[in-house]
UniProtKB/TrEMBL annotation:
Keywords: DNA-binding, Phosphoprotein, Transcription, Transcription regulation. Coiled coil: none annotated. GO terms for biological process: phosphorelay signal transduction system; regulation of DNA-templated transcription. This is DNA-binding response regulator, NarL/FixJ family, contains REC and HTH domains. Residues 152-217 form the HTH luxR-type domain. Residues 6-124 form the Response regulatory domain. The modification 4-aspartylphosphate is found at D57. It comes from the Bacteria. GO terms for molecular function: DNA binding. The keyword Glycoprotein does not apply. Signal peptide: none annotated.
Length: 227
C-alpha cells in the first residue's frame, strides 16, 4: 500500500488551518501531519515531521512564509520537502520572492478544494505548480523590478542553442508534451533537455528554471504570449 502524502499546514489564521486540515485528512492518499501559525513554526515542523509538502501562507507574524521557504528549501535536512505557497492575490509581489526562495509553486486561497488537493499531489511528486495564465505574467512583472538581479546571458553561457530554446518554452508555461509537439521532439528527449537544464542551472525544479529564464534576460516582455 502506498504511503499517504504527508502535509504540514502553515497559516496564521486558525480557522483556515483547520479547514485545510479537514480537507486534506478526508482526501484519499493525503494526511495532515501538523500545523504551524508562524514561519518559524513551519521550519521547525518541517524539520521535526519531515512532511512531503508544506502548504505555506506568505504573511505570517515574525518569520514570514518567504523566509520560512528559504530555510526549508535551503537546508539539506528538509530539502526533500516541497513548499506550495498560498496567497490571497494572484499578483502578490511576495510570490515572486517565494519562488526565488525555492517554492515549488503557488495557489490562490480561494481556489477550489479539487484544485488545491491536485496541487498538493502535483508538487509532492516533484513537479512544479505554475499556472501559465497567472504565473507567466507574475514572474515577468516582478523579474523586471529593480530588486531582481539581472545578469543577461551570464548564467546561460553554458547552454546550447536547443537548451535555450527549451528553457524559453518552459518559461512560457509549456508542458513537456507541449514542448515535444512544438519542437517535434520525443517526450524522452524533452525530459533529457529538462534534466540538463536543471543540472547546468543548478535549479531545484521547474519553477526555478522559469526564474532563471527571466533573471538572465532570456525572456523579456517581447517574448510574452498573450493570454
Amino acid at each position: 500500500m502506498t504511503e499517504p502524502i504527508r502535509v504540514l499546514v502553515a497559516d496564521d489564521q486558525s480557522l483556515l488551518r483547520g479547514s485545510f486540515r479537514v480537507l486534506i485528512d478526508t482526501a484519499p492518499g493525503l494526511t495532515a501531519v501538523g500545523e504551524a501559525s508562524t514561519g518559524a513554526e513551519a521550519v521547525e515542523g518541517a524539520q521535526r515531521l519531515c512532511p512531503d509538502v508544506v502548504l505555506m501562507d506568505i504573511r505570517m507574524p515574525g518569520m514570514d512564509g518567504i523566509e520560512a521557504t528559504r530555510h526549508i528549501a535551503g537546508s539539506p535536512e528538509t530539502a526533500r520537502t516541497r513548499v506550495l505557497i498560498l496567497t490571497t492575490f494572484d499578483l502578490d509581489e511576495y510570490v515572486y520572492g517565494a519562488l526565488r526562495a525555492g517554492a515549488a509553486g503557488f495557489l490562490l486561497k480561494d481556489t477550489s478544494p479539487e484544485v488545491l488537493l491536485a496541487g498538493i499531489r502535483t508538487v509532492a511528486v516533484g513537479e512544479s505548480l505554475l499556472a501559465p495564465s497567472v504565473t507567466r505574467r507574475l514572474i515577468a512583472e516582478f523579474a523586471r523590478l529593480p530588486h531582481a538581479h539581472h545578469a543577461p546571458g551570464s548564467s546561460l553561457e553554458d547552454l546550447t542553442e536547443r537548451e535555450r530554446e527549451v528553457l524559453l518554452l518552459v518559461a512560457r508555461g509549456l508542458s513537456n508534451a507541449d514542448i515535444s509537439e512544438y519542437l517535434h521532439l520525443s517526450n524522452g528527449t524533452v525530459k533529457t533537455y529538462i534534466g540538463r537544464l536543471l543540472s547546468k542551472l543548478r535549479a531545484r525544479d521547474r519553477a526555478q528554471l522559469v526564474i532563471s529564464a527571466y533573471e538572465s534576460g532570456l525572456v523579456s516582455a517581447a517574448h510574452q504570449s498573450t493570454d
